[in-house]
Amino acid sequence: MAKSVTAFTCTACGAAHRKWSGRCETCGEWNTIVEEAPLSQGPGRGLGATRGRVIPLAGLSSSEPPPPRAPSGIAELDRVLGGGLVPGSAILVGGDPGIGKSTLMLQAAAAFARSGTSAVYVSGEEAGAQLRMRAQRLGLADAPVRLGTETALRDILTTLDAERPDVAVIDSIQTLWSDTVEAAPGSVGQVRAAAHELVTFAKRTGVAVVLVGHVTKEGQIAGPRVVEHMVDTVLYFEGERGHQFRILRAVKNRFGPSGEIGVFEMTGGGLAEVANPSALFLSERGQPVPGSAVFAGIEGTRPVLTEIQALVSPSTLASPRRTVVGLDGGRVSTILAVLEARCGIPFAGLDVFLNVAGGMRVAEPAADLAVAAALLSAREDHALPAETVFFGELSLSGALRPVGQAENRLKEAQKLGFSHAILPEVQRVEGGNGIRLSRVADLTSFTGETFGAG
For the chain, which has fewer Cβ within 10 Å, the N-terminal or C-terminal residue? Predict the structure, then answer.
């Protein structure tokens, strides 16, 4: 008789261990390893002598047309999906609690249903009365969306197999439980089993399945990372509680470009799409003030202009504060070190605060020049010209390196009324799009030309 094998799995990263320990050797987290019964024992000594079937193979060249897409009518959502929803695809949507995931998914389900695509919304967290109240508040009560409230995976799959909708929204994957897994709902085994069954169902039947997932305090999808590898598309719903803007970002997409974003605005009637996010992010800019610089960035395939705000003030602490919102803190520390080592401009004894206006998150290295300009402007109490945009990557030597899609950045800036751009000297630009270009070789020359120092 085969001996039962006990598995130990990390709830943070999903890594399997042979025995329990206090610290996961894969991700380094403490007290995250739990005991689980394995999903299946499997053969003990390989596959044996039984042969399998021969898999049909095909060449790389194919005359098959691209998969059809079902547009929702929400332009920002269709942009992130790559043009619409692909039948049989599995989509994972994550975000902080209360950020608007359920609101967005209910609006998306209603938009698909109104466009002729049959939609089913299954909630394991809210009652049917709560969903109907939300639909009335959002003006979606007349949409032909069929609602269901259930957490048993077997019942959900049976219902979807009987209904065969075009799109099914499951809110959320952490509330589902399978009767074949001896673990509590939300555990690694349950999340992995539920995701596997739903993805398999989507591929077998052609039903597009949208899974809503919670995130951890680090901002990652809760549960094993293997769930992100199982699905076709992973979307993160980002935003700050104090801002009305919400960013839907595609970090993985097998049917479209990854890194694409869709911008929404939270209103009393739900989430409204923002067709021109650059104008919205810059709408509150007034007269030029020290510490403000406009960065011409690229998010996916879309140029987006955002405002980098900096504040530098004398510190009364032994270790000055470095507060960064919307940017990579490590990269900001590197820029501060380059300013001190290459330009001779110290920030010791000064508190530094950096923020990206509107709740936007910028991870592009091309923002280095804009961040440096905002820091220098705040430190020297010298306002930058209001009609100027910045972009360029900063190296450790202080030199400015070229970035991609410069023409699209300049075109977006010119469309919003900017007439001047500061960019790296080695940046190749096919035409200036009517904008005056100022090229700088390194951070030292930029500091001297702009602030008269260095």
Answer: N
Whether residue 96 contacts residue 209, with contact meaning beta carbons closer than 8 Å, is answered with no
Structure tokens at 45: 């000594």
pLDDT band at 399 (very low <50, low <70, confident <90, very high): very high
pLDDT at 42 > cutoff 60: no
pLDDT in tens, 152-173: 999 999 999 999 999 999 998 9
Interatomic CA distance for residues 454 and 452, integer angstroms: 7
Domain 75-275 and domain 280-451 have a common topology: no
- Strands 270-273 and 33-36 come out as unpaired
Q: Which two tokens stand for residue 120?
A: 């089913």
Residue pair 104/210 in contact (Cβ under 8 Å)? The answer is no
Q: Quote the CA–CA distance of 229 and 225 in Å, as a whole number.
A: 7
Taking alpha carbons only, the member of 386, 183, 21 closest to residue 377 is: 386
- Res. 454: pLDDT tops 70: no
Average pLDDT, the chain: 88
pTM: 0.79
CATH superfamily of this structure's domain 75-275:
P-loop containing nucleotide triphosphate hydrolases (3.40.50.300)
Distance between CA 61 and CA 173 in Å, rounded?
Answer: 37
Is the torsion defined by CA of 225, 71, 67, 162 positive or negative? positive
Residue stretches of the annotated binding site: 95-102
Domain-wise residue ranges, the chain? 1-38, 75-275, 280-451
Burial of 159 (0-12, 13-18, 19+ CB in 10 A): middle
Within 10 angstroms of residue 41's Cβ, the number of other Cβ atoms is 11
Class of domain 280-451: alpha beta
Asked if residue 48 has pLDDT above 70, the reply is no
Beta pairing partners, 295: 306, 390
